[in-house]
Amino acid sequence: MGGVAGHRGLWGFVRGGMGTVAEAIAASARAKGVEIRVNAPVAKVLVRGGRARGVVLEVASNLDPKRTFLRLLDPADLDPEFVRAIRNFRIEGTSCKINLALNGLPEFTAYPGGAPSGPGPHHKATMHICPSIEYVERAWDDAKYGRASERPLLELTIPTMYDASLAPPGKHIMGIFLQYAPYTLREGTWDELREPFGDRVISLIEEYAPNIRRIIEHRQVLSPLDLERRFGITGGNIFHGEMSLDQMFMMRPVAGWARYRTPVAGLYLCGSGAHPGGGVMGAPGFNCAREMLKQR
Length: 296
Ligand SMILES: Cc1cc2nc3c(=O)[nH]c(=O)nc-3n(C[C@H](O)[C@H](O)[C@H](O)COP(=O)(O)OP(=O)(O)OC[C@H]3O[C@@H](n4cnc5c(N)ncnc54)[C@H](O)[C@@H]3O)c2cc1C
Fold this sequence. Notes:
Elements: E1 3-4, E2 7-8, H1 19-31, E3 42-48, E4 51-57, E5 59-61, H2 65-71, H3 80-88, E6 95-102, E7 127-129, H4 133-144, E8 153-157, E9 172-179, H5 190-208, H6 212-215, E10 216-222, H7 224-231, E11 267-269, H8 283-295
Parallel strand pairs: 5-11
Antiparallel strand pairs: 1-2, 3-4, 6-9, 6-10, 7-8, 8-9
The structure holds flavin-adenine dinucleotide.
Flavin-adenine dinucleotide binds near residues 63, 67, 240, 277 and 278.
């Protein structure tokens, strides 16, 4: 302001450019515990009782549609028709994840010659235990009636075959993705069923790889209820909502609101509950960002 070190009429230059002034102020504020958010456009100033109480940021939610609209928002702020459509959105999962820490590799009777002499090519692949179409049908029959499949479809992977840093030398991690394990059980709860079901799955693998039980050091069973509790996915549906025709394309999550915008100005849906989710693909987020930029 036309003064440097007490001398008027002088103009100073800031080493590093003018941004350094803002950086210095920010560093000082941070040192005093201030949290500064950047790239967070404010959509609205909240006023209550004639006072500014806070700001509403432009928000992109990658929480599932039910959690976003029915838990984080007050339904009173939404059109009842929209709320009804979101309530009807089907989001019950039927998948379960079991993680195993192994001190060796499973030896499959169908493909001998791998472990213990060393890994075979199959250990690097996704291994399915799903012998026939009828097997799938029967597994689904159980789920239809609210039971976990007596003999589920299993998908086994050993990520340590590609990334040894995931476990100590000589040890492995095995991921088991399986179907069907309905979120809503007709009898009992997942808290009661979790471990007995895990035992059943290990027995099933044992039919194909007899050494499996011996090499397990630790086991983690994540039922749909656990996926919900742990990752905040309503119903434990891995894709943030059933991937059925009436919940896809221009109807994801609900008809009329498939373009990432929501009935609340400044709130966008950018996760797997938006088209073309779910899955690890980034497309809903990419499309949503484009939509947000269009609104600027
Ligand atoms: C067991 C399993 C297996 C899968 N297998 C595959 C696969 O093989 N291939 C594939 O493509 N996809 C797979 N998926 C699906 C894939 O993981 C999801 O589609 C993807 O992670 C969704 O990404 P997202 O960013 O939309 O949401 P998420 O990854 O669910 O992220 C949402 C985030 O919001 C957080 N959150 C929830 N509530 C709150 C709150 N109130 N406040 C703040 N944060 C909150 C959650 O903790 C989470 O981190 C699988 C999912 C599971 C569970």
